Amino acid sequence: MRVVVKGQKNRKGAPLRTDFGLGGADVVTLNQARERALEYRRMAKQGLTPRFNASLEIPTFEDVAKQVHIDRMPTWKNAKHGQQWINTLRDYAFPKIGRMPIDSVDQAEVMMCLGPIWTEKHETAKRLAQRIKTVLDVAKAKGMRWEEVDLEKRLWLCPEERMKGGEEHRVPLTDEMLAIIEPLRAMQSEYVFEGQKRNKPLSNMSMLMLLRRMNVEGVTVHGFRSTFRDWAGEVAGAPREVAEMSLSHKVGSDVERAYARSDLLDRRRLCCTNGLRGFIL
User: Where is the Phage integrase central domain (predicted)?
Assistant: First the structure.
């Protein structure tokens, strides 16, 4: 692919052109290559550097899988179970699709991993299918939409279809949050945080890429939620139910939840407004 970078000239005074590849035929399909080429040319016209964005914005399947493994370490039953989870991907998925950009992995690529072992190692194939699905689900873009935001009430209502627990979740918005999102209305997008493509949401993997750019070790995306939970309980002294509901976790038994129907929005707002922002800033 050849891209002309806006504003830069070569020795002869002509626009500077940079050549770089989009990936081999065994990794990127022709249609995917065409789509990326068009997108990178558009970025170049806007004064962006496609090569920089290409190398940082689209992690590989292996990158995402390893990050998911790290993020979920606290949830494993034991260390052995966690190691088995990543070993299955290492043995049967990474050799075939590990180097592929995560947004290039589709049904055909998944079948390429499952096909050779589906008959002889059926149980392993079933576990592999579930683990690949977990990685791909994490990488899906699940964007915050303007129609879900009530600036007057300072509230974001995340609908049930995008919540892991299948129940809508109300999120109180602080002054700092509003200061970030209000200027984004000028983008006139369906999504609050728009991705590189018009009217497409920012990918869930953007935080992973941000951490990679910062070159920090031992920091994970899931760690931000863990940090909040520790702060809420140990520093802010928030009641357990307030801290857990802030993370959209269910509290108590089915019977208890049947009687305690409040989501404690006002108490959660107070916790975030008066305490958390001061701790972070």
Answer: 61-146
